[in-house]
Amino acid sequence: MKTAGLRIVRVANFVTPVSGGLRTALRHLGEGYAAAGHEPVLVVPGPEASDETTPQGRVITLPGPEIPGSGGYRVLARRAPVAAVLESLAPDRLEVSDRTTLRWTGAWARRRRVPAVMVSHESADGVLGTWGVPAAAARRTADALNRRTAHSYTRVVCTTAWAEAEFRRIGARNVVRAPLGVDLDGLHPGRHDPALRERYAYGAAVVLVLCSRLSPEKRPDDALRVLAELRRGGLDAALVVAGDGPLRNRLTAHARAERLPVTFLGHVPRRDDLAAVLATADIALAPGPVETFGLAALEALACGTPVVASARSALPGIIGPAGGSGTTPAELAAAVRTLLAVPAGTRRRRARARAGLFTWPAAVTAFLTAHAALPADLPR
């Protein structure tokens, strides 16, 4: 007997046509929910209202203001329109991706006895630290925010143990772990393109890639410092930057002033083109210290490209033996050199094998488990 599907309404901020990991995760999870027989609905902010049917389900866009200096991010700042949409949708499950401006949705769901999940996509104290808040104050503020979040929702979903730690620290008991996945079919080593390498390498022997939003918490400046460190040490290397953001002009000026061979691609809209860039590079850099999962790094691994990441982030646990880590540009550069000493075929096979541990079907199952929305959990 077929189990009736649930209407899973997802509400998210900070989603734009050029945003990266969150937009990708929402799309794959929505498609997975639909394939499992549920009815996913996504509510996001945008410049104007719209309502469309997509492969990831119904997508409702509500007008939301742009955050100054964010490079295009918008938020659902007004509660009334969001609440009205939620009332009209009458969700069976609620999934929220923003524990600041949208935390009120937890109380809304509790009053209507709707099981609600908050997905923690960032480290609260980590982000506060990148804004210059002293460590002790950042921790106190994060703990207070996380207590309110844990109290407001049925469950809090974290994608890694690293992300989970700040909730365990406050004794939250409703935290579950659900890793994200990667498109192993669309992203693979066969995307390697010698012509692309010749175009972006500036004749260099080694090509690095940074696939990231160019914003302060991602530390894209460190990628340029790693490149400079390697070149000072005699390694002929170039860098390709895929992504855009508020630091784009500053980074461009930095590269020009230091005469560094850097190609800025901006946002790469076509997934095939991005896969080619990732698969063509020798090493991918992920210097952001507050990454709770790092989809861009996982996508590089799927393309057979090892990753050097910040040791302070969750990424060392994701990349495992398929990469390296460090805390300073000098340490990151040393990790690059260590990886380059491994035969190219070996390091690429390791990267691809590591990515194979993270699939979207497994991620969908984990998220539906958090929602108590697997067939075994539902009334027949």
Plain-language structure description:
- It contains 15 helices and 14 strands.
- It has helices spanning 21-35, 79-89, 104-111, 124-130, 135-152, 161-168, 194-200, 220-232, 248-258, 271-280, 295-302, 315-319, 329-340, 344-355, 360-370; strands spanning 7-12, 39-46, 50-54, 57-63, 93-97, 116-120, 155-158, 175-177, 206-211, 237-242, 262-266, 283-286, 307-310, 323-326.
- Strands 3-4-2-1-5-6-7-8 form an eight-stranded mixed sheet, with helices on both faces.
- Helix 4 (124-130) packs antiparallel against helix 5 (135-152) and helix 8 (220-232) crosses helix 13 (329-340).
Q: Could you give the order of strands across the largest sheet?
A: 3-4-2-1-5-6-7-8
**Helical stretch count?**
15
Count of all domains: 2
Task: Specify Rg, calculated over alpha carbons.
Answer: 21 Å
Q: Could you tell me the CATH topology label of the largest domain.
A: Rossmann fold
Please trace the helix and strand order, writing H or E for each element.
EHEEEHEHEHHEHEHEHEHEHEHEHEHHH
List its salient traits:
15 helices, 41% helix, six-stranded parallel sheet, Rossmann fold, alpha/beta, 380 residues, 2 domains, globular
Which SSEs are present, and which pair or pack?
Elements: E1 7-12, H1 21-35, E2 39-46, E3 50-54, E4 57-63, H2 79-89, E5 93-97, H3 104-111, E6 116-120, H4 124-130, H5 135-152, E7 155-158, H6 161-168, E8 175-177, H7 194-200, E9 206-211, H8 220-232, E10 237-242, H9 248-258, E11 262-266, H10 271-280, E12 283-286, H11 295-302, E13 307-310, H12 315-319, E14 323-326, H13 329-340, H14 344-355, H15 360-370
Parallel strand pairs: 1-2, 1-5, 2-4, 5-6, 6-7, 7-8, 9-10, 9-12, 10-11, 12-13, 13-14
Antiparallel strand pairs: 3-4
Helix pairs in contact: 1-15, 4-5, 8-9, 8-13, 11-14
